[in-house]
Structure to design on (454 residues):
């Protein structure tokens, strides 16, 4: 199936550059010329890692400058108060008009106010970490970057960090070199709170990825995707054949499956903690963080509430035990200049956990792999059905976690988009990303990336 439109959009965020090991000599040379990243505490290309840990010796917060970095004369720094409706609207407009748009200007990510409240206000969030740049004369917001607190574990070692996201500069100001200044300013503000490490992702290859995962896409409403020009009928196929290929059942099949409730938090969190021990790069959730990320702002929202951002489900057995959970979130596209359709519903697989292979000593044994593959294929298959019920037209996933066990079986086509994971001020050995050297799904080693970023 031709998913060119989807790939055009995703490659704006996740450019297909391949992993570091496969960089050509010319690409390596180009990266050496990156003046900004040469000044930052990040792993360099080709750098041998003999021991994992911080790159720069930790300083004290009082050693970090208290004043913001200098800004170009016609602009000024702005701490964006996302709890203020007008200022949140500024972020909403900036990102929706400038963050990502395909080259034909037919589709654009449609960040909602509900999404920002969910993504930018986890427990421990700081107003100081929502950094904007405004035009002095008009107050117009023209650039933005954010950070949220995140407790990482890298091969079992705790690394107190932030997650950097939503770096956006107005398209008319891309030549002003604002992005490096935004990164330096958010770094200064985070350091002032005695945090010295960060996790971030990019499609482009920068110095130097700790892991690379591939995107995969599962069409849900193929007819609508064709109607808006999102995809075409492949050679040798007909539209009805494509619709039939991607048809989904009307109801889920897993016994005991239901939407997660507040009373499930303890059991589901314990399940996730145990499941995540298999991965080398994970986020550690407190109970409050787990409730925020998987229940969202409004637990009372109805099942068909169009404003719901996060969808989380658990499986409860006959004895009342939570044996599985999965989640996905909504980030729709706006369809520009179409007579009928104004939006495409896009679902993203988030975190999940299952006890299917807990009884086995070696999770890579044939028996453990078969048990987990069977369970996950059923669970995520139900997730696609629930995504359809939530009016989503495409379901996306990475090759992270244990995803490669079910991607082919559930008709997730491999995308052209790759997502590189980076650690700031922390050197680490490579982490497998669920893809082989030829970029096909790695069903044997799978992935050791357990963290999922928005």
């Amino acid at each position: 199936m031709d998913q060119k439109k989807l790939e055009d959009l995703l490659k704006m965020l996740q450019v297909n550059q391949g992993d570091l090991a496969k960089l050509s000599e010319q690409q390596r040379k180009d990266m050496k010329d990156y003046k900004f990243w040469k000044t930052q505490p990040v792993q360099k290309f080709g750098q041998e890692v003999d021991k994992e840990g911080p790159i720069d010796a930790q300083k004290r917060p009082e050693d970090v400058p208290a004043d913001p970095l200098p800004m170009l004369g016609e602009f000024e720094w702005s701490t964006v108060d996302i709890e203020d409706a007008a200022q949140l609207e500024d972020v909403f407009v900036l990102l929706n008009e400038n963050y990502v748009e395909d080259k034909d200007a037919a589709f654009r990510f449609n960040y909602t106010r509900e999404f920002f409240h969910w993504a930018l206000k986890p427990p421990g969030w700081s107003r100081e970490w929502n950094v904007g740049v405004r035009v002095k004369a008009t107050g117009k917001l023209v650039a933005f970057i954010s950070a949220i607190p995140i407790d990482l574990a890298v091969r079992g070692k705790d690394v107190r960090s932030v997650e950097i996201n939503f770096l956006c500069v107005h398209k008319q100001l891309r030549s002003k070199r604002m992005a490096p200044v935004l990164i330096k300013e958010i770094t200064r503000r985070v350091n002032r709170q005695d945090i010295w490490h960060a996790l971030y992702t990019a499609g482009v290859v920068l110095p130097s990825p700790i892991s690379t995962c591939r995107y995969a896409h599962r069409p849900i409403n193929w007819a609508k995707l064709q109607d808006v020009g999102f995809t075409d009928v492949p050679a040798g196929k007909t539209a009805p054949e494509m619709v039939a290929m991607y048809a989904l059942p009307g109801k889920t099949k897993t016994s005991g499956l239901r939407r997660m409730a507040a009373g499930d938090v303890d059991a589901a969190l314990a399940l996730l903690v145990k499941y995540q021990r298999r991965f080398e790069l994970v986020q550690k959730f407190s109970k409050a963080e787990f409730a925020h990320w998987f229940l969202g702002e409004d637990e009372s929202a109805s099942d068909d509430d169009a404003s719901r951002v996060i969808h989380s489900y658990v499986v409860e057995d006959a004895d009342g035990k939570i044996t599985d959970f999965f989640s996905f979130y909504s980030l729709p596209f706006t369809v520009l200049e179409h007579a009928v359709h104004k939006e495409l519903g896009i679902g993203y697989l988030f975190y999940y956990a299952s006890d299917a292979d807990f009884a086995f000593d070696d999770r890579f044994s044939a028996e453990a792999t078969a048990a987990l593959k069977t369970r996950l294929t059923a669970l995520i298959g139900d997730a696609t059905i629930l995504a359809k019920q939530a009016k989503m037209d495409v379901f996306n996933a990475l090759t992270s976690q244990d995803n490669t066990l079910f991607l082919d079986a559930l008709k997730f086509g491999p995308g052209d988009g790759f997502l590189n994971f980076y650690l700031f001020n922390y050197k680490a050995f490579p982490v497998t990303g669920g893809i082989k050297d030829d970029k096909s799904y790695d069903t044997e080693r799978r992935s050791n990336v357990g963290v999922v970023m928005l």
Remarks:
- The chain has two domains: 4-210, 212-423.
- The mean pLDDT is 87.
